[in-house]
What does this fold into?
Amino acid sequence: MGIGNLRTADAYRQGLGNRRNASGRRAKLKKFLGVSLAAAAVGVCAVGSADANTSTGQSTSTNTSTTASEKARVDVVDIKLKNEQHAVTDLGPAGPSLGDYNSFSGRAIRDGREVGLGAGSCKTVHIEGDKATTQCVITVEIGRGSVTMQSLAPKGGSSLDMAITGGTGAYAGARGTAHYWAIGTPDECMRVRLLR
It folds into this structure.
């Protein structure tokens, strides 16, 4: 083996070392870019979540992105409720008892115009002393479809949060929450947060 061959061998080893360093730099760059993209995605989700929790008093839509292939949409709909009919069915002994029913219906009003009917019933499912708990199921028409919801509710409460369990029409497959306040008064309202 001559001096020329040794120089060629040294050059080969140095070149191999440079390629190894280059591939190490590429791996570090890929890792840095991956971490940066993940951080950016978390930032987008946090901003989207903050927007979804903003209440403007009007119907809004917010698109948030958790991954490139999955998108969630939040619709916020405010409805005024005009109670029209109410009946109490007292089963069993007189006064509050298990199985008693409250049935009710009224008009749903959005942006000053009637958009549909809201109706439901609450059944007494638990009594402890003078406190009663009911299981409520309500369906409300909101223009392009209806939304169904249910919840346990303390009897006589002035506000209530309900789980949205589904819907029809434009709200098919909906989920989310509905918050009622001023229940049973002329100022009764509902804010629906639909996740679709």
